[in-house]
Design goal:
This protein is of the alpha/beta class. It contains nine helices and 15 strands. It folds into two domains: 171 residues, Alpha-Beta Complex (Quinone Oxidoreductase, Chain A, domain 1); 128 residues, NAD(P)-binding Rossmann-like Domain (Rossmann fold, 3-Layer(aba) Sandwich).
Length: 321
């Protein structure tokens, strides 16, 4: 089968003779039609931050985890061959033509789904749903989302859908902020041009926000996020930290008595089906628009470079097999 392997920083090998995986009891084998690139793939690809200490080459197919395809072999009761699915592969070996996966990290899609590739956005939506299920509600709360890549945009959309009183979106790229407004942000801040903390203070008349979500993981974004909640407010860290240890304003957080919550994505399987259903209906079908650009499988080296370099329009960049 075909597969991708990161063999050294910013260097991809396109393989076409990789052995096909075999499902064990409780698993299914999926032939993939689409696989998306995630921001979490960029550290291993570029070899920056804590990823600079990892060994290359990476395992074959790692760490793809956003896949659409059809079940071609099943050893799992209730999951029939021929079923179109959203799937998260076992071991995150998703940059491959065939993957094995198991419930609950798999969701049924209608066979007549229009543009099945656009359904790949349900995977990041599932991670956001899981994250927000771990914290208090947002109804009538002022919220800020730091970072408006694909994950940040999903947070912006869902906060608005869940009844947030105000959503403030920040990013360093104006074109991403345009998408944030499209998904319901009341205010946008370009952090490369404005002091984010001062801008939030002005927007909220000095009160600051009830709930800040950090979706980047870089040193500066984490530091900035810590200064946005009001006293006894909440700080949710979702972005993957760029280093094992990094500077953070702990004294400020301590004095403000902030509640800190963290979430990471692999355990999002139980939210797969509800996320897929939301993207299929009017609740979150608008998220399908961010599955852009679409590129053929053999353009993967170019696609990874585009994503790593923040090329305009690269949101949920998806490879088509």
């Amino acid at each position: 089968m075909r597969a991708i392997q990161v063999i050294k920083p910013r260097k991809i090998a396109m393989l076409d003779d990789v052995p096909m995986p075999e499902p064990v009891e409780g698993e299914v084998l999926v032939k993939c039609s689409h696989v998306a690139i995630c921001g979490s793939n960029m550290g291993p690809y570029t070899g920056t931050g804590l990823w600079g200490e990892m060994k290359y080459p990476n395992p074959i197919g790692w760490a793809g985890h956003e896949n659409i395809g059809t079940i071609v072999k099943s050893r799992c009761k209730g999951w029939d061959e021929g079923t179109l699915v959203l799937a998260q592969p076992e071991g995150y070996y998703g940059f491959a033509e065939y993957i094995v996966c198991r419930p609950p990290a798999i969701a049924r899609l209608p066979q007549n789904t229009p543009d099945p590739g656009s359904m790949i956005v349900a995977q990041p939506l599932a991670t956001v749903l899981r994250a927000l299920s771990q914290t208090d509600g947002v109804i009538n709360k002022t919220c800020a989302v730091i970072g408006q890549g694909s994950q940040g945009l999903v947070f912006t959309h869902i906060l608005r859908l869940m009844g947030a009183k105000m959503v403030i979106a920040t990013d360093i790229l104006d074109w991403r902020l345009d998408w944030a407004k499209r998904y319901g942000a009341d205010h946008v801040i370009n952090a490369a041009k404005q002091d984010t903390v001062e801008a939030v203070k002005e927007i909220t008349n000095g009160e600051m926000v009830d709930f800040a979500i950090e979706v980047v993981g870089f040193v500066d974004s984490l530091k900035t996020a810590a200064y946005l909640p009001k006293r006894n407010g909440r700080l949710f860290i979702f972005g993957m930290p760029h280093y094992q240890t990094q500077e953070f304003p702990w004294y400020h957080v301590f004095r403000k008595e902030l509640e800190i919550k963290l979430s990471v994505g692999p355990e999002c399987g139980p939210f797969f089906q509800i996320a897929a259903d939301m993207v299929l209906d009017d609740r979150s079908s608008c998220l399908r628009d961010m599955v852009t650009p679409r590129m053929p499988w053999d353009k993967a080296p170019e696609a990874f470079d585009m994503y790593a370099d923040y090329a305009k329009g690269t949101l949920k960049l998806t490879l088509e097999l």
